[in-house]
Design goal:
Helices cover about 85% and strands about 0% of the residues. It is mainly α. Helix 2 runs antiparallel to helix 3 and helix 3 packs antiparallel against helix 4. The radius of gyration is 20 Å and the shape is extended.
Length: about 120
């Protein structure tokens, strides 16, 4: 009886783990929309800026999505990804006001600090 309960518990745990690993991939439009909303909220974008930012982020998300589908080697993919992100940053820089640029730089620095802390903790 104990063995049967252990087997059932193990099978239930495995099925739960397997279903938890299925990740729903967002479309480029959804990714751009989420990022735009976040920036609109934190940088207090105007309606015109919001439209422009969404267009830039949609182009970035579409490019990165198509890049992932190519399944290139990691180094080539990483370099292309960095180039796309640099172009996006340059375009956003032209849209933001000086105050927004400063706030955006702070947001990026905080995000990088969190990412570095997670990497350091994982080592």
């Amino acid at each position: 009886m104990k063995k049967l309960l252990m087997i059932l518990a193990l099978a239930g745990g495995l099925s739960f783990t397997a279903s938890a690993q299925k990740k729903v991939e967002k479309t480029p439009a959804q990714k751009a929309g989420n990022k735009t909303e976040h920036l609109e909220k934190h940088l207090k974008l105007t309606a015109d800026q919001t439209k422009k930012v969404n267009a830039v982020l949609l182009a970035q998300a579409t490019s990165i999505d198509s890049l992932k589908k190519l399944k290139q080697d990691k180094k080539t993919s990483h370099l292309a990804d960095q180039k796309i992100k640099k172009q996006t940053a340059d375009k956003l820089d032209k849209i933001f006001t000086p105050e927004q640029k400063k706030a955006y730089a702070e947001m990026k620095a905080e995000k990088k600090a969190k990412k570095d802390a997670v990497k350091k903790a994982a080592q």
